[in-house]
Amino acid sequence: MILALLVGAAIRAMLLGVATWLALRMLRQRNPHVEKLVWRVVLIAALALPVLLYWRLVPVLDVHLPSSMLVVVSADPAAVMHAGIARSTGLPAALVSIYVVVTTFLLTRLAGGLARMARVRRVARPMPNRANVFVSADIRSPATFGSSVLLPETALEWSAARLDTVLAHERAHVRFRDCHWSWVAQLHAVVFWFSPFSWWLRHRLAAIAEATSDDAVLAANHDHLVYAELLLEFARNPNPGRVAMSAAGPNISARIERILSRAPPSLPPRRVAGVLAILAMVPAALCAAATAGGPENPAAYPELADPHIVAYGELANLEQHYPPLAVQDQVEGMVTIGAMLDSDGRVLTVTVLKELPADPRYGFGAAAMEVARTVLFDNPRKQPVFVKFKVKFTLAP
Questions:
Q1: Which listed residue, of 22, 92, 290, 294, carries a Cα 20 to 30 Å from 111's Cα?
Q2: Which residues in the chain belong to E strands, given as ranges?
Q3: Which residue from 308, 296, 286 is spatially nearest to 337, judged by alpha carbons?
Q4: DSSP string spanning 102-151?
């Protein structure tokens, strides 16, 4: 059930991302500071979606579901066979195992990278007369780890102009908290590794972070050509790992072209603009999390001819779909489901209209949605239609 929740959240986050990308293109937004702010809000929304869906903290869109029927799901397979009730195929255990293995591997790799960089930072030597600037033999090119700037040992021999240029770039990362946001984006990619959008968002935020730091260098009136040459030099000696922001970051060729074009550097938006951008994204995030629903009062639905079930799905091992905690606590439940059928009677979408008990720990709603997706109805109208039915979870006597 948790994996199904994550997949649903990933799809909604992708739709939110596509809508955001189209909006930025339509508005011809070219300020990387504004774009970074917008994508950070999208990242927060993407991480919040599973929580919003799990606790149902999002608005429910009102959809009229006229038909009504009752389906009973029991922890006793024999009782269910006798009642002729549908069984959810669910997600195969193999898929859950694959998700756990890949997530564990990626999380371990991220934790290992953070631990290695933390060790590098711990043993690095402070640079004289430079606060939070350190030199290390393990660093090939300038990097930012958290709020610390790490430089190669050769930095001790750099000219003052070269050092000031590099520090202008790296300190911009510190000021904008780019490294911390990069870790959040990487954690999002670990949890939603199966979603291409999570990897794209991580890469996009990293690229924009480098662009805003480039602008900070140019805004300080450092020479464009000299800075472009520095970036090219650092790109030949990238740092291993991806847990630190590096001057030799992504899109180096596009960044150099942008610098040499001598376009005026973009400036960070005012705090008020940032707040407005966040407020503008809130409705979009809520819409992405919203689920089609309907009125909970059965009297609100007119009495129409109910499409009847013609195929119940598999009828074996139904006990695995009864929420384990509910079995342990000897709790029974009732869930009212709204479903949209296609012209052939297949279930296209399902939503929970009412769940008793509503405690999300038991997961009656998620289990009922899985069951509902396997039901095939007779749809004589041969056009999309909404139905409402109840799934009753009963324990064997």
A1: 92
A2: 60-62, 67-74, 125-126, 133-136, 143-145, 148-152, 245-246, 291-293, 309-311, 333-341, 347-356, 376-377, 385-394
A3: 296
A4: HHHHHHHHHHHHHHHHHHHHHHPEEPTT-TTEEEETT-SS-EEETTEEEE
DSSP count for the chain of H helices, then E strands: 12, 13
Calculate the alpha carbon distances from 162 to 155, 248, 326 in Å: 9, 15, 65
Q: Are strands 60-62 and 291-293 parallel, antiparallel or unpaired?
A: parallel
Residue 241 has a CB neighbour count (10 Å cut-off) of 16
Domains of the chain, each with CATH number or no CATH: 2-90+288-394 (3.30.2420.10), 95-262 (no CATH)
| Tokens representing residue 47 in the block | 């991480």
Tokens of 343: 């012209």
Stated pTM of the model: 0.71
